[in-house]
Amino acid sequence: MTLAEFFAWDPGDPSVRHWQLIDGEPVAMAPGSSTHGAIQAEIARLLGNHLVATHWPCHVVSEGGVIPRVRHDRNYRIPDLVVTCSPPSNAPMVSDPVLIVEILSPSNEVETWANIWAYTTIPSVAEILIVSSTKIEAELLRRNADGTWPEDPEQISSAAALHLESLSFETPLAAFYRTTSLARG
Known about the structure:
Number of helices: 3
CATH architecture: Alpha-Beta Complex
Structural class: alpha+beta
Radius of gyration: 16 Å
Shape: globular
Largest sheet: 6 strands, mixed
């Protein structure tokens, strides 16, 4: 299926909230756990508040679709959060994402990492944050000055501060887990 066919397609299954197009095949997205949703909401709130307080011309989009550069006519991926500095629109995809956030769940780890590698082909993406839903830790991929990506992500532990250069944002990693049982030990 092409991207145009995907956007015109009616899956006829109201039980599925989101569909991705992966190499020409529609793939249903499983809903996240309540912990996943709580982490996603907290990250969106913290990033959004930072953007407003610092007057950045950017905004956070929850589950906004992106199109990787490689095989762009057969792929439409939906990360948990996307930050873009492009003006808001009604388009089915987010233009020029700067930061992509994925919350990693054990049930979809392989699919999530496949999406992450696809995100690295998007020219505007500067950072990709991968946040665990089972423990307080994260991994950060940051594009190098020459446009390449590092071989390995930066590991961020529960006691560490997270710094996102793309947005001049810094917070203790544990802040993302404030409303979860993980924060309570």
